[in-house]
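call fold(seq) -> tokens
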Amino acid sequence: MGMTLKAEARPLSTKSEIKKLRENGKVPGSVYGKKIGSASIAIDAKELLALLRSNPHAIVELDIPGAGVQPVMIQDVQREKLSRTLLHIDFHQINMNEPVRTTVAVELTGEAEGVKSGGILQVQMHEVEIRGLPERIPSAITFDVSGLQMGDLLHAGDLQMPEGIELKSAHEDIVATILVPQKEEVSAEDQEEAEPEMKETTHV
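ret:
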């Protein structure tokens, strides 16, 4: 199980009250679920940021006033566009005995043979969508790229899923590729400029 967060009850508030809440280091939020319906809450901003940095898709034990500790997952995060300050958080209550659909990070390890030969590793997908029981959801899916040669593609279907976990992203989605470095083409004009001028000589 992931980390535990303690939620505070939050009555429906005015804009000024929500602003004050944020100034006091709290993030307004909501939690939804079959057992609890919906509840307005507030979470400590530092604890929430720590969770978002370490594993934003983790299962969280959320201590909800009046409902006790419930397993939840983050459903939506709202941030201020420029400062990226947390504005609002939504949690979804889950059933530990029912599969959930979520996204997890892809972590590439090792150094590809193609990179050693001068190629460039370009990552196109940092996360994949999976489905499985909550207790089996990994914090990340790892893949050793050591065997990738220049020009190779790593597809989502090439990733090894843990037991009990189903890949829901399209198997043909490209996760990463080893790009072949582009050689600079020299134009005919550049070649002419680079060549020394040949002077015509007349023999008498």
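The longest helix spans residues 45-54.
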